[in-house]
């Protein structure tokens, strides 16, 4: 179904412009267009507006006005904060500590720091995406110049234990940079930070405004040439109208936060509870309790994330994903990978302020059939979604492979969907999608006696040249042919398979037995992933 109006559920990427921001921007364009560094009347007027905006932002973020500088984006704020703090503390050492699920802006600075001779330690997270404060503290050293921890995760909404980590950093004398891009404006800023960054377009301000706050007493040396503006931390002309609009909207959303957070939390709870009941083979990821009120993320087995997002868009819903197939790099989400959860078929729903209950209900109504339609051509024995089962006896008895259409559709014969197959590359196009056993390149081979994990015979699935979720789909098709305790091996050269096959085992109750060279099982590249079938 195609709608003229799209329901926007991607506030974690960027929030719609708040009405207060629009009003403030329009007024500031007339009154604050001049150079705030000049002494004539229009310059002084612009300076007054800039100072007032700085005071407003500082109050909302728990900082002093002279600690706050405005940047051109949240990413720039993170980069300047990290590089400036590392430079300011270089006498202490060159060691940086950050969590495994930080925003890419942190990771890119860490890569540059390491390439320049610095050291970087990465703190792992649990399956909910949360760091263990003790594990974080254990990595702090006498030569640690800086630690970085986000306030809440941008992909799954998990809130980090910033206060506990900050206490450990303070005890060790290590400054802590907190990236508050996802939480600023929505929840209270955690205490204990040394440097704080935020991004206006995440809370409903205009794009192109970031915030960098540096506590008094924190060593900071600008990594850029000196400039007299913004306390010497951010060079260049400031966009006064956009900054005024950002500060005004920050104050407005903070005033609305308590009431609106409670309402959005209830809507997100509804999605978290009902999606696993409505859609078979779904895992809701992220910490179920310690999380932001407006973000919910779930992963659907056997689903190409790009296809599902496109179908949701056609149905009138704008959502996002951490799936590799939806990114420009085609690499798996580092956040989902660090959590050890499924990286394909991932959907992130992030509700903006003002989201209507009816829109959430409609999303829950259309999602099951859309997922079923994407899965239908795969030939998997999956139960029909709840909405289809309740549609009548005929729908209840219809095989899952027919959930998305009639048997006359050529792709309903068990072949891989044309769109997904096309993404596998030219080599996979030449390989038959299925063989007599219904799996791409599957074959049984004798197991050498020197391999204790293989008893008798093992089944090998050749999924080389195929992108996830295709290797996982092939595994799901063939696992039923393996006896209890038997081993099935998947040959794959897509990096996502290293993450998604173990995640699939965790969801389906089978045992992931590790990884081996593909050459051990007849492959000419990639890796072999070993799965032991368990009763499920």
Provide the fold topology.
Elements: E1 7-8, H1 19-31, H2 41-61, E2 68-71, H3 74-88, E3 95-99, H4 104-115, E4 119-123, H5 133-138, E5 144-150, H6 162-172, E6 176-179, E7 195-199, H7 200-203, E8 210-214, H8 240-278, E9 282-285, E10 295-300, H9 305-314, E11 317-318, H10 334-339, E12 346-350, H11 357-375, H12 386-389, H13 393-397, H14 418-422, H15 426-430, E13 443-446, E14 457-462, H16 470-478, E15 487-492, H17 497-508, E16 511-517, E17 527-532
Features:
about 525 residues, alpha/beta, 7-stranded mixed sheet, 17 strands, about 15% strand, globular
How would you describe the overall organization of this protein?
The two termini are 37 Å apart. The longest helix has 39 residues, at 240-278. It contains 17 helices and 17 strands. It is of the alpha/beta class and 536 residues long. The radius of gyration is 26 Å and the shape is globular. Mean pLDDT is 86; it is low at 324-329 and 388-456. Helix content is 37%, strand content 15%.
């Amino acid at each position: 179904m195609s709608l003229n109006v799209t329901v926007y559920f991607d506030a974690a990427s960027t929030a719609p412009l708040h009405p207060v921001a629009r009003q403030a921007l329009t007024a500031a364009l007339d009154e604050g267009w001049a150079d705030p560094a000049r002494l004539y009347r229009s310059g002084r007027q612009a300076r007054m507006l800039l100072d007032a905006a700085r005071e407003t932002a500082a109050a909302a973020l728990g900082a002093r006005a002279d600690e706050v500088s405005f940047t051109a984006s949240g990413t720039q704020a993170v980069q300047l904060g990290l590089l400036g703090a590392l430079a300011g503390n270089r006498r202490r050492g060159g060691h940086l500590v950050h969590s495994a699920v930080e925003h890419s802006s942190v990771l890119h600075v860490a890569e540059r720091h390491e390439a320049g001779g610095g050291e970087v330690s990465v703190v792992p997270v649990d399956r909910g995406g949360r760091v263990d404060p003790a594990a974080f503290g254990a990595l702090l050293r006498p030569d640690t110049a800086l630690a970085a921890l986000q306030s809440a995760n941008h992909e799954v909404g998990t809130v980090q234990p910033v206060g506990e980590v900050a206490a450990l950093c303070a005890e060790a004398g290590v400054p802590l940079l907190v990236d508050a891009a996802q939480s600023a404006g929505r929840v209270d800023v955690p205490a204990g930070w040394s440097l704080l960054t935020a991004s206006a377009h995440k809370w409903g301000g205009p794009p192109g405004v970031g915030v960098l706050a540096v506590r008094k007493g924190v060593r900071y040396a600008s990594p850029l040439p000196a400039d007299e503006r913004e306390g010497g931390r951010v060079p260049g002309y400031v966009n006064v109208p956009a900054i005024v609009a950002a500060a005004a909207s920050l104050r407005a959303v903070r005033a609305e936060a308590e009431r609106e957070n409670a309402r959005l939390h209830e809507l997100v709870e509804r999605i978290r509870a009902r999606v696993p009941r409505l859609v078979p083979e779904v895992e809701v990821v992220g910490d179920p309790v310690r999380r932001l009120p407006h973000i919910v993320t779930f992963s659907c087995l056997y689903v190409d994330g790009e296809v599902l997002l496109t179908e949701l868009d056609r149905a009138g819903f704008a959502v996002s994903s951490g799936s590799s197939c939806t990114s420009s790099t085609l690499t798996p989400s580092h956040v989902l990978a660090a959590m050890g959860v499924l990286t394909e078929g991932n959907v992130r729903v992030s509700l903006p302020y003002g989201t209507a209950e009816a829109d959430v209900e409609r999303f829950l109504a259309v999602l099951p059939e859309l997922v079923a339609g994407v899965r239908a051509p795969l030939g998997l024995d999956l139960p029909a979604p709840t909405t289809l089962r309740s549609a009548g006896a005929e729908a209840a008895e219809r095989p899952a492979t027919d959930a998305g259409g009639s048997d006359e559709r050529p792709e309903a014969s068990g072949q891989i969907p044309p769109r997904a197959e096309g993404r596998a590359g030219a080599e996979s196009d030449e390989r038959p999608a299925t063989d007599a056993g219904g799996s791409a390149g599957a074959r049984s081979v004798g197991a050498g006696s020197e391999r204790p994990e293989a008893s008798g015979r093992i089944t090998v699935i050749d999924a080389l040249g195929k992108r996830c979720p295709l290797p996982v789909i092939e595994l799901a098709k063939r696992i039923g042919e393996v006896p209890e305790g038997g081993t099935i091996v998947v040959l794959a050269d897509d990096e996502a398979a290293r993450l998604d096959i173990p995640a699939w085992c965790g969801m389906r109750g089978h045992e992931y037995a590790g990884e081996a060279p593909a050459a051990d099982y007849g492959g000419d590249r990639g890796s072999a992933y070993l799965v032991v079938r368990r009763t499920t």
